[in-house]
Amino acid sequence: MPIAGFELDRSSQRRDTSHPPSKQTVFSNLWIINHFVFENARKIGYQYFNKAAALMPLAFRQRNFAVAHHLRDISAGYDTAQHASNGGGPFVTYSKPEKTRTKSAQAKQDAILDAAARQFNALGVKGAQLGEIAANVGMVTSGIAYYYRKKDDLAAACFLRAIAVTKVHALTASAEPDVAARVARLFALHLGELAAMANGEARPLIGFSDILALGEPQLAPVLAAYIDMFRSIRALLADPAAKAQEHSVKVLRAHLVLSLLNAHRDWTHRFEASDYPRVAHLVADVVLNGVTRGADIVLGADPVLPAPPPASDPTAEAFLRAATQLVNDQGYRGASVEKIAAVLDATKGKFYHYNDAKNELITACFERSFDLQRHFLDQAEALDVRGAQRFAALIRALVCFQLSDRGPLLQGSAFSVLPDQQNRAHISRTRQQLDTRIGSILVGGLIDGSVRALDPALTAEVVHAAISAAAELRRWLPRADPASVARNYAQLIICGQLHA
């Protein structure tokens, strides 16, 4: 999943003083942002250094006072607008100054972060093992401990590196003159980074789906950095010429854009890296202009799809919902039997009374999510209306279900870390089949003229990712009316950022 965020208020950025990080944790986890800026200061500018420095704990900034002043000296006179005019582009090096770390130690730490990012992406934060990461860089586990005492320390460093890159992309794109140009530039920079990674020209970055799998004290600074990055994207989408928007609508707009950036693995696998610039243009077009022709869809005018009947066994259904939420938040391996049972205030004995094993329960979660999507697809396809109205009715029904007491649906990214390869293949194939059905509805709209000219296959995958991300909206807006949130979010998917 894309990160299930927290309510956007200032209190969410306060340090957790009840679990103060150790000196080793501070230096091993957070030097990466400092030295990421050091190597790229002439491109990024002192404005970004101020932003990045704000993410560092006070003790870390004080101990790096000399480095901060050196950064100020070498980056004076550069700003994000100049960086944007120079073409931006992927950031390849994340090195530490020679005065504080030798080149060989720096290269080793970069190699550890690279190997860890790949391993965390493949197995999740809970599933990856330090021993395997160490073996991939020719080390033993104790050698990793010299740089990162715990696995969560290493994972936090990977998250901070990825957050720093996305933050720089957002700041670079913000130099464009209007919202449309900024969004297009943001996706171009992001897909350019992915293309460079695919070609071995940029360092691999961890996805954000497992952030909540971190424990304390590592989670707090990563969440603070993530929320700061979120605010940068929210600011990028602000249009002074447009009418004033509610805070919740601004949050929904930013959440949708960031979720689609995070979900790139759902739709880039079908394309070669050389084709990523075209993909970036197509995705940005869907984000900005939506799917339907604006005049054809009036909010609330399309049919309402009936919800599926309630489950025959409420207790078994409760286990499915609890497991789904935990897997969405913490990944397959983070959702332990103990945690699933604890959500329902149940014993392990009760868990095994209703479920043979965790793997079978998670598989059942996927099947439940697929059956629910099939139900709404069947209802939409049976409507005697134009394609755009079928599509709009489907989107609104799925988003409303995600935010209902019967939600959420299991996010598609969870299947990639399932231990059973045959099961992974089955779930991936089923998801592709459901995406094809969404694409078929879009093709019907293209034929009858109610849907804009677009790539139906790619758009179906982008839309699926947007619906999946709706499961996180309760965390971003816990006090907002779910019906209003669902209506506004669905309208963003249907009509786009410029027309919703």
Structure description:
The protein has 500 residues and is mostly helical. The protein is 64% helix and 0% strand. It is built from 22 helices and no strands. The protein has helices spanning 23-44, 46-53, 58-63, 65-75, 80-85, 103-127, 130-136, 141-147, 151-173, 179-198, 219-236, 247-262, 276-289, 314-334, 337-343, 348-354, 358-381, 387-402, 421-448, 456-469, 473-476, 482-495. Helix 6 packs across helix 9 and helix 18 (387-402) packs across helix 19. The longest helix has 28 residues, at 421-448. It is globular, with a radius of gyration of 23 Å. The relative contact order is 0.11.
Descriptive labels:
single chain, disordered N terminus, 0% strand, mainly alpha
What order do the helices and strands follow? HHHHHHHHHHHHHHHHHHHHHH
Total helices: the number is: 22
The low-confidence parts are 1-99
Assign a percent range to the helix content: 55-70%
Taking the alpha carbons of the first and last residues, their distance comes to 25 Å
**Category by helix and strand content:** mainly alpha
Rg, rounded, reads 23 Å
Strand count, sense and barrel status of the largest sheet are:
none
Strand content: under 5%
Work out the number of β strands: 0
Shape descriptor: globular
Q: Could you tell me the mean pLDDT? A: 81
